[in-house]
């Protein structure tokens, strides 16, 4: 990737909202060369794409902005995965891969996990609130840790393995979306392979000794067979692909949602004070934060035939970037969309957690983690504020888990 395109991508992904506004105001769709895709920015058009999975395939949903070097690909070839996963599949294949996740994230399963979420959240807040320093960098101390612990518990990981798996998830995102030198790419690829080898071990273990966890749910659903019959190599590759994708989706986006929500509440001080005085408003605050600056800004789709969308003719094989973040700021659906207001009536349902066959299966769990986080912080640290000596908050240059790079707070 040349430096000019890299700089332009950085600019667009750190603050995509000016681009979204121009695209919503334009006739038809807007082609964005930096993304090599047509931008779908209006709420109605986003909904149309999501409701037409036969015409708009998810096969290239996570095509990266960077192509890893041959040396990095060689390292990745030593690992597992590389198979279609739930968000990159369509039709019957998608339904097959999604079914065990729906069962594993049932309302009853999520409810049973809530006591653990509260316990871990309390422990993490204790780790910085009780130190007497009166300040914290929230992303590292809390937002990047709670979701990984929670999703690890759901999957059935040993707590000792969670940091390496979470690290591997972050390295996957960096390898696909951040330009870097060959040596750095190879190092990232090695971390990813380490994560995949850990997940392969869990899949093989659950075949031999099933447990009440999501890893077992995936193994028994996608690779049924007797406990004394080892998984085939193809089954291992498929299971690792599903586990890797689920873990990334489970912790990266929730980390981002925690960070952006706390940031916007503190940036709008009156909203934070209203929340501390009236914690019953927390569920509404969560929905407003998700609408206003959603963690998952956009996913790709590719046309399976020639179609017309918003008056724009798209040949077969055209890539569109479906911008959930742009839909959340569409005045046709949300009056005064650029105003952050936790008292907003959510009459026009936002698309932060998707719609249709690919709607987020983990939305309830994400909301629970954010609810518990806000209840804790407003109760224990009502004087929380953005640090005066670190007033500039820079957003990560990505559209798949938009979040502050760091969030320095004081109280």
TrEMBL record:
Keyword annotations: Heme, Iron, Metal-binding, Monooxygenase, Oxidoreductase
GO MF annotation, one: heme binding
PROSITE patterns: CYTOCHROME_P450
Lineage: superkingdom: Bacteria
Sections of the chain in a coiled coil: none
UniProt xrefs under Pfam families: p450
InterPro entries assigned: Cyt_P450 (IPR001128), Cyt_P450_B (IPR002397), Cyt_P450_CS (IPR017972), Cyt_P450_sf (IPR036396)
SUPFAM superfamilies cross-referenced by the UniProt entry: Cytochrome P450
Record-stated family: Belongs to the cytochrome P450 family.
Protein name listed in UniProt: Cytochrome P450
